[in-house]
Amino acid sequence: MNLFIFLALSAFVGGVSLFAAYLQVAKSAEPEYSLSGPFTLRKILFFLAWATPVVLFFVVWGITTVNIPYQDDIDAILESTSAIAEGTGSLREFWSALSKQDDERRIVVVRLVACVMYWVGGSIDFRMIALVGICTYLVFLKLVFTWFKSEPNLPLVLLLPIPYLLFSNFNYVALYQAMVPLQHIAVYVWGFASIWLVARNTRAGLLWGSIFGILSVYSDVTGIFIGPVVAVMLLTCRRWLAAAFWILLFGFISVSYFNGLVMPDFRPTFAQNLASWPDMLLIAVAMPGMIADVFMEGNQTSRLICAAGAGVVSLALVGVSAFRFGRKLVHEREAITPNQWWLAGCILFLMITFFAFAFGRAANGANSILLSRYKHMFAFWAILNYLLIIQLPLFRRTARRYVLILQAAALIYFGSSYFQTWGDMIYLRKTIQTDAYGWTKNREFPSAPIYIAVKKTVDTIFENALRNSIYQFPDLPFECLRQAKVRGTSEIVVRTADFIVVGAEAPDIRCSPDDGIYLIIHSGDEIHMLPMRLRRNTFLCFLRTGRYYAGYCESMAMLRQYLSKNKKYKLTLGVISGSNRYLLTTGKEVSTS
């Protein structure tokens, strides 16, 4: 990572954001929500400060994403699209292809988007499927903006921290696997939109809320919870007819959804989860506080303890807010606004999700909630908690004093997310590319040893897709290393058991998406390429040296079974750093005798 570019970009984003916050605080005028009329410096800077994290998020994603299916994308998207492209004889068969069980869920929306893309363009682009899901972030941002706009006595400046939380990069894994954004991000956004529309207390709102609720259900199994959440909201509001309609509709959808659905063998049973009750309790308390999990390379136990502490605070806030809401419900029900119903419904939706996760995954260990792919859940939760906080009378009286502190904290969170995850994100990108190279050259998936057990199925899916031009592998940046020149040697450490792992001192490389170091395992015409994970420097070391990566790297582990028997393989390192592409010999070999 170029130190000058990083610091210049950080100074620009931070300066614009903090100056915009300062101008909002300094003015005593009422908040301005419209950009119509004269474009004052205050308006322009506010718009720039609000839009900058969004633009940076999409630019970074656009530069680094790849059009390659990753693991579950193969059977979740490519198989169903291929089946539909080859022809379904009836509407029932078409629906069967869309709603075929994927793990413990049905991902109809993901597959439908893939099919529409195929019908329109003649092929699948996995980047575009992911982009559709990622764009649901904008829907959530619009909901939050509209919530602010209709809330009296809330200064506009309090909006500024929200995009910096929402468009951080801590959940980068969820953004690069094509099925996940439309499945695991969109399910919450469609649910939030459903609650928002139903809370408007209109017939049109109920109708459109039902449509978004159905979208949520058929995005991921988590969407099932939207049924009881909205039903409770309607019954509490005494909207009896609307409640009856909702219960009948989502009762039918839930029954049809679970009809024929079988829990996969690899998921823990209810008894196994109950036996892991300490982890269950820790997950239930820690998930509401996971926004505090900001040190990605820290000890897992310390991260969980920190999250649990923040979770206690978060649950206390929700408890106090629930008490105030309940008291208002008893004494002045009519005074509860649609905005308050929406906030209460969204928090209930997420809280049910958290506790369902605790009951369903406790046997996997509490560490499972630390995975990057879940981080957007905690960003949603943190934003909803933030909306609760700014409604408290105490905060309203002192809000202007702490605006700059809040904005500075949001900026640090946003910048830290990109600094901490950049190396791992680029490594994930290389992992996906390596899988593509492995299958096209050697019929292997280095990142997924389970491929050996499902080889026949996966090979058939790919072969059908390639034969029918449903999908084509893109060119890969490291293929040129096969013709690169040798420019020296490198000392390496080789570990071989079931897996082959190589460690080495890393040469100085840049931080562009294609830059990196690869382990090349070759024997004659048989060549395997594996990316090497580079350690990241601390921030202070980065500022002192200007180097993002530290000096040691280690290759992805590859099963020895992927290599031919009774054969010797040479080990070579391939380096890409900008326009420099070269090889380093090691003098080491591995054999499979």
UniProtKB/TrEMBL annotation:
Its signal peptide is: none
Record key words, sorted: Membrane, Transmembrane, Transmembrane helix
**What does the record list as coiled-coil region(s)?**
none
Source organism's superkingdom?
A: Bacteria
Name of this chain's protein:
Glycosyltransferase RgtA/B/C/D-like domain-containing protein
**Membrane-spanning regions, if any?**
44-63, 106-122, 128-148, 155-175, 181-199, 206-234, 240-262, 274-296, 302-320, 341-358, 378-395, 402-419
